[in-house]
Amino acid sequence: MSKGYHDKTRQLLRISGADRQGFLQGLVSNDVKKLGEGAIYAAMLSPQGKYLFDFFLSAEDDAILIDVAAGRAAALAQRLTMYRLRADVVIEPLERAVWRGIGKPPRGALDDPRHAAMGWRFYGDLEIDPLPEDHFEAARVEHLIPEAELVENETYILEAGFERLNGVDFRKGCYVGQEITARMKHKTELKKGLRRVAVAGNAPFGTTITAGGKPAGTLFSVVAGQGIAHLRFDRATGEMQAGAALLRLI
Fold this sequence. Notes:
Elements: E1 3-6, E2 10-16, H1 20-25, E3 40-45, E4 51-60, E5 63-69, H2 73-84, E6 90-94, E7 98-102, E8 110-111, E9 120-123, E10 129-130, H3 135-142, H4 178-186, E11 192-200, E12 207-211, E13 214-223, E14 226-232, E15 240-242, E16 245-249
Parallel strand pairs: 1-10
Antiparallel strand pairs: 1-7, 2-5, 2-6, 3-4, 4-5, 7-9, 8-9, 11-14, 11-16, 12-13, 12-15, 13-14, 15-16
């Protein structure tokens, strides 16, 4: 049985014009040429290689749709417009509902490319059995899928697991922030990143984690005793503490 809900936290942008594919190819972390295979997950980075936006891209007739957090849609459109220059590209909001669901996908739905546990996405009008709006929160924590954990102008996407989540392509060529991302992949060993932790006790989102009395990272989303934490790997050993909560790596 299929179940779903209208995700009002998401907004669609429509990118049209003859240059739309090449335009986006030079800006996002994934290979836009893969759109013929289904939706792709990608990020837009600063020139310093830090996270600015993440979104889903999909092809529709003579346009590319961008599925982005509603609160960030206007800023993303503005950023894209800044790079447009003389390209034949039109950037506009699309007033169409974003649905998320599980079970047999309706015709026209797209698999969430990050992980099978994240179900499917559908753009438009839909009548379907209801699914609780917090359904995917436990799944994303269990499978270490960041959303609220992505911090503008701070997060590096490889520390956030974008390679594992099919959100970055290292063979596509240049894009804004690509040089830093490639260097982190090929020339350095990551010393920090997101990890799943068992959480005993309560700690609010953003609580500092300590280990042996030293700062070791930050605790983010917690669901049913499991959480997502950004950790310094050299200190994330044994028992850790976040406020009144005790943590350990899973």
